[in-house]
Amino acid sequence: MKAGQSVFATVSNFLSERFPVEHMNFQHMVEKKDVPVHNMSWGYYTGGLTLFFLMVQVVTGLFLLFYYQPTVSDAHLSVEFINKHVAGGALIRNMHTWSASCMIFFAMLHLLTSFAMKAFEKPRELTWIFGVLLLFLTFTFGFTGYLLPWNQIAVNATKVGLQSVEAVGEYLPGALSQLPHILRETFQGEASVGQSTLGRFYALHVVLLPLALLGLISLHLLSVQLHGMSRGVDQPTKKSERFFPFFIFKDLSLWSIVFLLLLILAWCIPFDSFLPYPLLAPYNALGSTPAGIKPEWYFYFLYYPLEMLPFWLILLATGLAVLVLIFTPWIFKGTSRKTLGLITVLASLYLVVMTVFGEQIYHMVKP
Amino acid sequence: MIDSVLFIALPYLAIFICIFGSIYRIRKMPMTYSALSSQFLESKSLVWGSVPWHIGIITIVLAHLFALICPGLWQMLMAYKNVLLITEALGLAMGICCLVGLIVLGIRRISSQRIQAVTSRMDLLVLFLLTAQVIFGIGTAVLHRWGAAWATGTAVPYIWSLFTLQPDLSYISDLPHMVKAHIVSAWLLILLVPFSRLIHMFAVPLHYLTRPPQNVLWNNPRHYEAEAAAEEILDTDARREFIKGGVGIAAGTLLLGAGAMDKIFAFFFGPRLTAKEETELMEEKLCRLQATTDQRKLELERQSSKYILVSAMSELSPTEGKYLIDYQMTPAMAFKGEDGLPIVLSAKCTHLGCTVGNTVNKEGKILCPCHVSYFDIKTGEPNADAPAKAPLPILGWALIDKAGKLIASRSSKGEISGDTSSESIKDCDLFIVKTDEVKV
Ligand code: HEM
Ligand code: FES
To answer: Which CATH number fits domain B2-209: 1.10.287.130, 1.10.510.10, 3.30.450.20, 1.20.950.20?
Structure first.
């Protein structure tokens, strides 16, 4: 009994340090909160921008729901209908797609800057973990949303994605090796990507994931407000800025500029225009897969290595990376900000090079 | 002849003088290359002149440089109608901004005695040339529209031909006079850079962007007091300021909302299609529904029947596979083999499940386009270095004649039975079979 009690005490201590109830009041969480001013201050905007793009996603997503029909016979046509006939439909859809990319970009940037600024130090370990989970959720949003227009690239990329999940099974021991298969069947719902898959992805994309995201975001933001902004740099900064009303107004001004840019971008450049038409044609179960199937750009950093290197290597690296990300607060506890900065630069370099030049590198390696 | 002087000799001269002249001046007279200030002498019209001028010219110069340095990317962007529209409109607006700024600056130079004291003839010449340059630019934008699009085929290759030392006048020889004037006066301005205050272009305070914010403090007790007082105000009035700001934002949002309301309403109200559009849409819908129905029928058929028709033997080709859906509801395809017997094999790539293409190449292989795996249609084996490792499964089949009699069959393991002479199978239909029990 005693051991049990002490475990309980440890857990409750841990939690009460991370969620100090005595701080849960307006004064502490809003009025007294300061934002340090230093060279890396711009990093404090990345989280807010991610939140902003999420809000755009929610609003434009709700707009799309009015016309989108999640069945294999109607999905593609309903998306076309939005584009062609609905007033402002093409704009809304484009905003949803552009902003999805922006949200993922800023979520990644937010993770990188928080890492470089060592924002995960005690007592912010849970804030970090919620953040990592949020990033994964955002990727899942992108993956499930991608299938919804039901065009050639959507269905085929989803097939490849789900099949890659299944391929993990070979490398797992014993009974575990069945897990990826079961997982794929669960998400796919039938022998091949079809109506059941579409229904499931739809439910995930518009109901389950948003709910999960909402829950996680509440926890994430609650802990951010409870603990205030982390220092971010080594020398204590002399200057700081009150979060409320000053910083939040800067946030809002930035958001309005970004909104304007997003609007112009979505109005001018259809996201679809980056793909040739055969890939955007309605999915055809009877034809060959058209050439050029690839995931959205934000999966390139995983996709191109997967194309070039042995699967087990990528699997190992990804598994390790996920573990490291989750346990970062403990792994990098004693690391100096300088080293963290270096790691961040290297990681960003990898991400940028793979995303921008992945295709060229692939063609160089496999002519 | 005159063209060669203006568009080949002048540019080389200008660039040469600009580069070496500027280096000379920055080296020998380092303190003179940031703009000679006249701010203390007169500052009001400086703001109204200098700010629009600099906002305008910096935007425009950056856009020109962008188009010059990445013409491919620029052209790709301009292919979007809306991007072109915005670029042209923004360009014109910025041009007008420049012109307004220049006029204010010009009036200031001429009208204020104190400023005339620090004004050289060179300043006036530069001011004049800049004004001319801006007017030519605006003229081009207005009279010869869509320059953002056509410049990548004319001015840009011309300038590149200069840089690569193969001057080619044919790109610009047919351009209107307005555009040519714009180009010539640009070379003249570049020529004058080292001799005038234009050289301050090279003293752009870029480090301001990255250094942490600094407060410039006046060495004067009065300013300290004023600053302390200001901070006091911020502290006590924060709430009031916040409410003010909040009300401002709310009002702005309301206005924006009112402006966008009819659009938003139209979105939810939905389109009202013309009869023709309505018919087209209905037809398309029916067509897609039909495809789904067909798919469902296939599924049902696979549940209930032992054989499924693929096609008549006579329709099979040795080089182009016929797609079908097998009993697992995954794609497969059928060929006519060299021996005249059918080949039916799965078309679901054993790598990650794409559908393999149906065109046979010279080596007798078919290609999965997703990650480039070639499969031999006779054995189903992938080539050695393909990402796919397992062969495509070869399926069993049955040949049935018009009278419904089973003539020949192949089990999934490869045993062929029955009468396989080409004479007897040529009028048969090809079926895939649910189990291997079907045998002659
Ligand atoms: C409550 C929130 C959301 C709702 C209700 C929603 C709703 C929808 C709907 C109805 C579609 C199908 C229409 C279409 O394909 O254009 C869609 C597509 C999509 N969604 Fe969302 N969405 C939400 C949030 C998100 C988030 C957070 C992301 C990613 C970060 C995202 C990424 C996508 C993508 C990539 C597509 C495919 C766009 C396309 O190719 O057309 N969505 N979403
Ligand atoms: S899915 Fe066919 S090669 Fe990868």
So the answer is: 1.20.950.20
Residues forming beta bridges with residue B399, ordered by sequence position:
B408, B430
Q: What is the ipTM of this complex?
A: 0.83
Whether residue A342 has its Cβ less than 6 Å from ligand 1? no
Domain A48-296, second-level architecture? Up-down Bundle (1.20)
Q: Which ligand is nearest to the CA of A148?
A: 1
Q: Is the pLDDT of residue B79 over 80?
A: yes
Do residues A365 and B372 make contact, with C-beta atoms less than 8 angstroms apart? no
User: Looking at this protein, which amino acid is placed at residue B139?
Assistant: G
CB distance from A5 to chain B under 8 Å? no
- The minimum CA-CA distance between A172 and chain B, rounded to whole Å, is 18
Q: Is B371 in the pocket of ligand 2 (CB under 6 A)?
A: yes
pLDDT digits (tens, 9 = 90+) for A100-156: 999 999 999 999 999 999 999 888 999 999 999 999 999 999 999 999 999 999 999
Compute the count of residue pairs across chains A and B with CB atoms less than 8 Å apart.
115
Residue B20 contacts A, CB cutoff 8 Å: no
* Lowest mean pLDDT across B33-42, B166-175, B184-193, B410-419: B33-42
pTM: 0.80
Q: In terms of CATH, what superfamily is B304-433?
A: Rieske [2Fe-2S] iron-sulphur domain (2.102.10.10)
Q: Which residues of B touch A190 (CB under 8 A)?
A: 329
- Ligand 2 atom with the smallest distance to the CA of B371 is 3
Q: Do A286 and B331 touch (CB under 8 A)?
A: yes
Nearest one of A38, A49, A37 to A259, comparing CA atoms: A49
Kindly write down the DSSP assignment for every residue of A29-65, as one continuous string. Answer: IIIS-EEE-STTTTHHHHHHHHHHHHHHHHHHHHHHH
CA–CA separation, A72 and A79 (whole Å) = 12
